[in-house]
Design goal:
This protein is of the alpha+beta class and 168 residues long. The protein contains 4 helices and 9 strands, in the order H-E-E-E-H-E-E-H-E-E-E-E-H. It has a single domain, classed as tRNA wybutosine-synthesizing-like (SSo0622-like fold, 2-Layer Sandwich).
Length: 168
């Protein structure tokens, strides 16, 4: 168990985290996911309500059957994100270089104050409003969003596996 909303490590990256944690220390992670969600008017992350969250491909009916609130409903794809504490700037750069070579191009050092933190992050995102009380994206548009998100999820998993093999 961990402190995340889900409460446990994503199975899709467990082996990757095990390999990374031999030399570094991961502090947070997400394998990448497809999410349908609402946010509060004050945009507080803690008040985000997930209507659907999946680390696997989703189907049209998974989204279409959701009970939609009167708030704006968003459809999102998020790629892998890892926060990793490193011993030195040099070791963080080494990790980032490997991650970047596997396609995680939004990676970098995000902090050097208390400890050196590397962020490993993919580049593929989707974030689009799809409903407010009722779906305002037509079925064709929704199918396209889901297809694109599923394709991005496949690419993300491919990159994760490349990164894992490079680190082994």
């Amino acid at each position: 168990m961990d402190k995340s909303k889900k409460g446990c490590i994503d199975e899709e990256i467990k082996e990757l985290l095990d390999v990374i944690n031999v030399k570094y220390q991961t502090t947070s992670s997400c394998a990448g996911r497809i999410v349908v969600y609402t946010v509060s008017d004050d945009r507080k992350k803690q008040k985000t309500e997930w209507l659907l969250a999946s680390h696997k491909k989703v189907e049209f009916d998974d989204v279409k059957k959701l009970d939609l609130p009167n708030d704006i409903v968003w459809f999102r794809f998020e790629p892998l994100i890892l926060h990793v504490a490193c011993e030195s700037v040099e070791s963080a750069c080494e990790l980032i270089k490997k991650a970047s070579s596997c396609g995680f191009k939004h990676s970098g050092i995000m902090s050097t104050e208390k400890r050196i933190m590397a962020e490993i992050r993919g580049t593929d995102f989707i974030d689009a409003p799809i409903a407010k009380g009722e779906m305002f994206v037509n079925d064709e548009g929704l199918r396209l969003l889901i297809e694109e998100a599923n394709n991005k999820l496949d690419k993300n998993l491919y990159r994760i596996n490349r990164f894992l093999e490079l680190l082994k």
